[in-house]
Model the fold of this input.
Amino acid sequence: MAFTMSRGRIAMSVGALAAAILLLEGVLLRLLAIAQFYHFAFLVVSLALLGFGASGTLLSVSPRLRATPIERLLAWVGALFSVSVGLTYVAVNYLPFDSYSIAWDRRQLFYFVLYYLALTVPFLIGGLGIGAALAARELQSHRVYAANLAGSAVGALLAPVTLAAAGVPGALVACAAIALLPLWQARLRAPVAILLGLAGLVFGGLWLLNVQGTAPLGITISPYKGLAHALRYPGSERRFGGWSAIARVDVVANAGTRQLPGLSYAYRGTLPVQLGVAVDAGDLQPVTLTEPEQFEAAAYMPEAIAFALRPGARILVLEPAAGLGVLQALAGDAAEVTAVVDNRLERLAVTRVAGAQDVYAGPHVRVQFETARVFTQRDNEQYGIVFLPLTGAYQPVTSGAYSLAESYNLTVEAFVDNLDRLAPGGILVTTRWLQTPPSEEIRLVATLVEALKRTGIREPAERLVALRGIQTITALVQKDGWTRAELDVIRTFAAERRLDLVWAPGIEASEVNRFNRLPEPVYYETVRRLFAASQPAGFFETYPFDVAPATDDHPFFFHFFKWAQTPEVLATLGRTWQPFGGSGYFLLLAMLALVLFLSLVLIMAPLLLPKRAHLPDQPARPAPRGRVLLYFGLLGLAFLFVEIPLIQRWILLVGHPTYAFAAVVVTLLLFSSLGSLAARSAWLPARAALALLVALAVLTPFVLTWMTQISLGWAAPARIAAAALCLAPLAFLMGMPFPLGLAWIERAYSSLTPWVWAVNGCASVISGVLAAILALSYGFTLVQLVGAGCYGAAWLTMYVWARDV
Done:
């Protein structure tokens, strides 16, 4: 076989491989969100970098690979990557890994290792091609690095496009097809059947997966997910199924779908027929097939008190999922309902299955397609009621419980925006699940109290009313304060519906714990202690769970873990029936230990072998391996400490992890590629570039926070452009340190290039998971400042300790 490829074609091949790799990363976010409860963006980035790091090691210890002409290597890497995508997809669907049961089923740890390694294989193969191109002497490494970054930006941009067009299976086919470009670029003079055979393997593997009974979505989902439960119910029937860039939506009909959160046990009427809508195979949300005037149960749901206090109000319902909240508002005699829906496909599913009983199609309903945060910033109208319905399923909270999910609708800033949308005398109403001991409901109250304080209200206890049933708590907030007549109506409503007051202005201890009796009135007592605390920070510090208000910088509303819980967590390990068994935070640490171990074994260990320390073309004098290790390791840590929080921050700006991942990666890599091209030019000295990078890395988190506050209500293109403009200078400079370091190595130690690629990858693997852990505990800004510190340490490494540069 003859291969001929110009430098331009080599750059195109590197770009194609990079695009396929980043497209695969974007698709894996959706695959994991559907299969394993969360998008795991940090884990996807981590496993990609593990593959890249291992590929660098493989290059450094394999003379045969280094001796292979770069044209031939790129061609075969592209072919093998294409095949590996399909085969890996099949493998992870057959592996019985389930993140939900990992705490009580020790086999899941073994399955997780296999799962992780299977997903790493395509990245290892792709990294071989890119790493070899970087190390090739006949090529300029900074230009190859720029092609890599630019191709990666294109791949990230393609992710939402291909997902919207063909879902996860189709997007993986596109990924495999793009990776075949180096074969075509190399002008392979062999039967076309070879290429067709490779493509056939990929398509055949995907077809096999889609027709097997265990993967009804083309993805094997956790047996504990809502859709899996619903499909196991006798007589279940799928009424709708579809893909978009941000979601997989399914509608299931069965006799077991019943969901009216907080419904009073005093209700004796009939229940309406409901269908279940699952987004990403998750918890079913009800499509209630009845007319508003026939929905008698609505009057016995706790939110009905707000509608009774404000009859004929204009009501804003924020992200009501399949529409139950809208139906409640209409049944409560709303004059007009504005429904803010962030998932167009979910809205389409309701239309398809509800027919004439589509609640969104009513004459008094106005539908707005955007996120609640964007709408409340953009909209200037005022409403008699702002309603945040309960749309998530109940999950018990025990010591150690945590959630990686970013909940931007439940932060202090979100509630401030909601309060701003209230007309004079308007009511904010929201419902959450009751937990034992109190946690979720106390964080709700704490967050509402902080939001009231930020609007200038000095006595938030006089503005809040909370009542509970058997499983839910409903909070009502009025900025102007409650009249005695309104409080009397609330008390009467609660007594008639057998609901217990948790808090109200002037509440007496004799009024609580009357109907849904507990041994002690723990919810009332906890809220009372919160209001009685002279310094709320002291209350939060001594409380056994983390219930401090959620903020946009720390939007993990369902993360309750404290280190003081450690003894109880260890004592109950594997004995609690909930996601991650109550030991979830420790499982994150276990995940960090696992990726550290794998990165050391697959990346570092081979490089530490004495016989491999000096490669054949190495100069006689010892290589400065300590400085190389430190410098490129710090760069690996720094890049991910900046990138991972940015992806999580941008979920607020663009509305979904898929879009956030694409926007951040495109911006970072596009401008980083320009920075890498400019790295060796004379217009910006290396010392000044790195110093400026440190300064911008410190400032950018604060600039982005300010920019988000002023631009959240803008149109999506304007929001993205403004954020990208703020990020562009930092991204440009972030593209410089790696090629500057390569220039340092190439002066006397050119054969160490695969080694530094491996070291950088190893540090990046660790920092991806570590960044998520730090963000969960301390917030995004701190993680990004740690990243800035790593860049500062790298600058010191090169320009204080390495004076020979």
Summary: The chain has two domains: 7-213+581-801, 289-557. Residues 209-216, 577-581, 612-621 have pLDDT under 50 and may be disordered. The first strand starts at residue 237 and ends at 243.
